[in-house]
Amino acid sequence: MIQQQGIERINVGVFAHVDAGKTTTTEHMLYESGRIKAVGSVDSGTAVTDSMEVERQRGISVRAALASFEWRGVQVNLVDTPGHVDFLSEVERSLRVMDCAVLILSAVEGVQAQSEMIWNALRKLGIPTLIFMNKMDRVGADPEAVLAQARTYLSGDILPVQQALGQEQDYAGAVDLWADGADPAARTELLEAMAERDEALLEVYMSGAPLAVADWKKQLIAKTASGTMFPLVYGVAAKGLGITQLLDAMTDYFPRTGGNPELPVSGIVYNIQRDKSMGRMAFVRLYQGTIRNRDTVMNYSQELQGKVTQIRKVEGGRTEDVGTLEAGDIAVVYGLTGVRIGDVLGLPDAIPQEAKLAVPLLTVRVHWEADIDEHQVIGAFQELADEDPLLDTQWLQDERELHIKVMGPIQLEILDSVLESRYGLKVTFGQPSVIYKETPSQAGEGYVAYLMPKPCWAILRFKIEPGLPGSGLQYESLVRSSDLLPQYQNETARRVPEALMQGLCGWEVTDLKVTLTEGQHHVWHTHPLDFAVATPMAIMDGLNRTGTRLLEPVLQVRIVVPEENGGRVMNDLVQMRGTFEPPVLQGERMIIEGRLPLATSLEYPVSLSSYTKGRSTFTSFFAGYEECPPDVRAERTRRGVNPLDQARYILSVRKALEG
C-alpha cells in the first residue's frame, strides 16, 4: 500500500480492558479490509498485531502494534494497544499520537477499571471516541445494563446508533438506526437522546418541522468530532459480526487527520523497537511537513541531526518501504542514531500534550549467575529501557547492583522471556518492593555557604514548603541576576530535581514548593560547577529542618465476588487499611469499590481468587500517593554520600574521598 498524496486518513487507537476482545477485533478489521487473507487468533498465537514470541505464547498484547489498511477510500492507521495494566506505558504513548479512538467494552463484564482510566485520558485530550460493545452472543451479555453502566462511569452522552437484534445465543446482528427500514421507535429514541443533550437540536425537534435523517446524522458526526457525543455500535468480534459496520462507523464519524505537508517538519517519536538487520526503528507520528528517504532531520529534543535511511510501514512481521512520510501519517523511520521515545523531530509547535497514565509502583533488583558478563546484562536492560523509559534502569556502581522499576508481576514475566529469547540471558528478579515517596512535614529553610576548600564560592538559601497532593515540584527564584548570574541560577534550577531524588528516608521528595530566596557568587573564586555541588547540600539542609512525611501508592479497586463472599472481602479491606463505598448487589454478585494501599494488597488478588474458587474479579488502577499512617516505616539505602555530611560529600564530588 504505497502512500498517495492528498489521501484521506484517520489515525485510530483501539483501547480496552484486558480480555475485552481488542486484538480479535483488530484482526477482523484487517481481514474485512482485505489487508490479510486469513484471520489470525490470539489463542493460537497467529494474530498479526501480536508479533512478539512472548505475545503469541501468553495470548496477551505486550506492545502497541501498528497496522494500516484502506476502507471506503480512507487510509486507516490502526494502533492495537495492550489491555493489561502492567503495559499501561504503551497505552499512554499511543494516546498521544491518535486522533480518534475505539473503546471496546464487553457486553458481559461491562466497564472495568482500565476502561474508566483510558476514558478519562481520552476526555482530557479531547479525542473523538466510538464505543464497540463486543461479545453480544456470550451467556450473561446484558447490553442495556452495560449501557447504563457506561453512562454512569464514562459519560451520559454515549448514544447507541444501532438497534441490537437479540442477545446472548440469540444475537443476530444490529441494524443502523440511520438506514432505511430502521425501527421508527428506536430511531426516535436516538433523536430524542440527541435533542436532550443539545439545546439547538432540542429546539429543532420541538418545532415539529420535518426531520431529515441525513441532517441529524451530520449533527452527530459533528458532535462526535468535537468530543461531546459518543456513538455506540454492537458486535461479536470472534465471529466477525458487526466488524464491517464498525469500520463504516469509524469512517463516518471520525474526523480526518489535519497537517500541512508543505510546512516545516514537526513530529514525535512515540515508540522504539529493534530490527535485527536494520537496527533501531523509530515509530513517528508526523503533524506537519514531509520526511523522505535520505533527508536530514533535526532531533529537537537532543539537538542532533540524523539522516533518514528508510521509511517503512510495519505490520506484525511484515514491512513495506514507502519512501515518504507526510503530515498526518504514521510510519517507521530508520537511521536516526540515538533517537529516544518522546523525542521531537523538527519543531515542537504542532505536537499535542500527553496524558500521564503509567506510574511504576514497584522496584526490583536483577540477579544473575557469576559466569554471566554483567556488562551484557546492563546493556540488555539499557536497550529495553530505550523501548520503555519507565523501566528506569539503574546500575549502582559501588554496590554492583542493577535495579529496575516495573508496573507489576506480569511485566516481570514478560521481561524474563524477552531477555532469554532476544539476548540469550537468564536472570532472576528479587522480591518487588513498593516505591514510596516523601513530602516536607512543614515549611522551613535550607542554607549552604560552600566556601572551602578553595577555589570555590557558592551561597544559597531556599525556602521549602509543602505542596498540594499530586502537585509535584514547583520551583521559583526570587534572586536578582545582579546578585547571582543567570548561568548560576540556571545551574541551581537544573540541580534541584536531582537533589530531591533522595530525601531523608532515601525516597524521591515530591509535592513541594522550592523558592530560591538568596544566592551569591564570587567574581574570582566561583567555579562554574560550585552551584551543582552546593544545591544538594542546601536542599538536604532544608529537608532536615522541615522533616518529611512518608507517602505510599494507593490503588482504586473494583472487586466483584459472589454475594456469600462479600462479608469476608469487606473485612479483608479493613485489615489492609483500605476504604470502600457501600457494596452494590447485581444479581447474585456483589460489587465493592474502594481504595487500597499497594503495600498491603500485593498478594491479595491471588488469595481472593483462591477462596472464591476463581469466581471473583479484582481490577485496580493507580489512584495517587497518600500519606502513610505514623506507624508505617519504609527506608531505602541511600546511594552515594549524603549531602548532610557536607565535608565528606564535598570530598566525594571532588573525587578526593579514599575508599
From TrEMBL:
It holds the Pfam family EFG_III. Keywords: Antibiotic resistance, GTP-binding, Nucleotide-binding, Protein biosynthesis. InterPro entries: EF-G-like_DII, EFG_II, EFG_III/V, EFG_V-like, G_TR_CS, P-loop_NTPase, Ribosomal_Su5_D2-typ_SF, Ribsml_uS5_D2-typ_fold_subgr. SMART domains: EFG_C (SM00838), EFG_IV (SM00889). It comes from the Bacteria. Residues 7-262 form the Tr-type G domain. NCBIfam families: small_GTP. Abolishes the inhibitory effect of tetracyclin on protein synthesis by a non-covalent modification of the ribosomes. This is GTP-binding protein. It comes from Paenibacillus helianthi. The lineage of its organism: Bacteria, Bacillati, Bacillota, Bacilli, Bacillales.
